[in-house]
Design a protein that fits this description.
The chain is an alpha/beta fold and 366 residues long. The chain has three domains: 4-164, Spore Coat Polysaccharide Biosynthesis Protein SpsA, Chain A (Alpha-Beta Complex); 171-258, Tetratricopeptide repeat domain (Serine Threonine Protein Phosphatase 5, Tetratricopeptide repeat, Alpha Horseshoe); 264-366, Serine Threonine Protein Phosphatase 5, Tetratricopeptide repeat (Alpha Horseshoe). It has helices spanning 17-24, 42-47, 62-71, 89-101, 173-183, 190-202, 206-218, 224-240, 244-253, 262-274, 278-290, 308-320, 324-335, 342-364; strands spanning 4-10, 30-35, 53-55, 77-80, 85-86, 108-117, 123-134, 140-142, 148-150, 155-157, 162-164, 301-302. The strands form two sheets. Strands 1, 2, 3, 4, 5, 6, 7, 10, 11 and 12 form a ten-stranded mixed β-sheet that branches. The protein has a two-stranded antiparallel ribbon with strand order 8-9. A hairpin with a 5-residue loop joins β8 (140-142) and β9 (148-150). Residues 5-147 form the Glycosyltransferase 2-like domain. InterPro entries: Glyco_trans_2-like, Nucleotide-diphossugar_trans, TPR-like_helical_dom_sf, TPR_rpt.
């Protein structure tokens, strides 16, 4: 069985740190907490789980802080989490099983990262991250903000999910770091251009965000997942600016780079539904519904677009066409993911008598 050091950087996480540590502590050999300047009870919470608490002077560089935390580890492998992350019960069992069976020649284990869930517990947004890495490889974090762990060698993709359960978010922290760097005359890397554009979008600075997404794409040095996300997020920006034509063009732009993804299909379906072009809308929603569901993607994945959403919209399309049987079937498929959704319950009560009425008419012609 391999040994594991948990390495975390924290600041003012008194509300979430205990929840995180209690979900993983029984399976860890060593917990290393690096505090970057807490002024609340974060240290006191950490002391309930470990004596290995260190301080790091914050220099607006997440990678530097994480690399310092990694340098303190002594176990075979290093696991990293943020204070508002949690391993749920099912994933705790999976993690324990992994430690018993992990081949020591494996250099990195990736895990799905659940960024958000709906009220029914369905994953809404997921990405995949290198989460458990061999200490002897001395992998390094790269990037002062939106940092990433640079790994190589033998990697396996596990189904152990880490859930991000944030209670609050410092909305200005990252954009402030970027703008300090820009003011200092630092040239942003392609990756930084993408993440700065994301920050601008999140701050409703839509025209600026579009500009930086285009700058990112123009570099030609784009990871495919970030490239597709840029097209989608530009479409979001144009939607907020009420520019339908450029929203459509940004959506279609994604089709230049890869086969249609479910979120692109749903956006196109919605466009044609708004135009009352039901044939085109049905095509794109059915395409979305038929695409395989996966948690293997390293880019952001909106699981709504490959699960319940296209079926709910197909219910709308077929209802407008008077095909109540198909509308009902798609509503029921959506209901498998959202069993108490009020829209689905309403559709069921609305469609059921229409189906019965149609069946009665058919019988009368026999």
């Amino acid at each position: 069985m391999v040994s594991v050091s948990l390495c975390m950087i924290v600041k003012n996480e008194e509300d979430t740190l205990g929840r995180c540590l209690s979900s993983i502590a029984p399976y860890i050999n060593e917990i290393i907490i690096v505090d970057t300047g807490s002024t609340d009870q974060t240290i006191a919470v950490a002391q309930q789980y470990t004596d290995c608490i260190h301080h790091f002077t914050w220099i607006d560089d997440f990678a530097a802080a994480r690399n310092f935390a990694f340098s303190l580890a002594t176990s075979d492998y290093i696991l990293w989490l943020d204070a508002d992350d949690v391993l749920r019960q099912r994933d705790q069992k999976r993690f324990a099983d992994l430690l018993l069976t992990l081949d020591p020649s494996i250099d990195s284990v990736s895990m799905p990262y659940i960024l958000s869930t709906d009220e029914f517990g369905n994953s809404l947004s997921t990405i995949r991250r290198n989460r458990l890495v061999k200490r002897s490889k001395q992998f390094q974090w790269v990037g002062p903000v939106h940092e990433y762990l640079q790994v190589h060698g033998r990697t396996i993709n596990s189904d152990i999910a880490v859930a991000h359960c944030s209670l609050r978010h410092d909305s200005d922290r990252n954009i402030t770091i970027y703008e300090k760097r820009i003011t200092a005359g630092e040239a942003l890397s392609p990756r930084d251009l993408f993440y700065y554009a994301n920050e601008l979008k999140d701050h409703a600075r839509y025209d600026e965000a579009i500009n930086f997404y285009n700058k990112f794409i123009a570099t030609g040095d784009c990871w495919i997942e970030d490239l597709l996300a840029s097209c989608s997020r530009m479409a979001d920006c144009y939607h907020e600016l009420k520019d339908d034509q450029h929203e459509l063009e940004s959506t279609l732009r994604a089709l230049q780079y890869a086969a249609p993804r479910a979120d692109t299909c749903c956006r196109l379906g919605y466009y044609f539904l708004q135009k009352n072009d039901l044939t085109a809308a049905i095509h794109w929603y059915e395409t979305a519904a038929a695409l395989p569901q996966t948690d293997q993607s390293w880019g952001p994945t909106n699981r709504s677009c490959s699960t319940w959403l296209p079926h709910l919209q197909l219910c709308v399309c077929y209802d407008r066409l008077g095909n109540y049987e198909l509308a009902y079937q798609h509503n029921e498929q959506a209901g498998e993911y959202r069993p108490t959704d009020r829209r689905i319950l309403y559709n069921r009560s609305y469609l059921h008598p229409l189906i019965n009425k149609t069946d009665t008419k058919s019988d009368s012609y026999a």
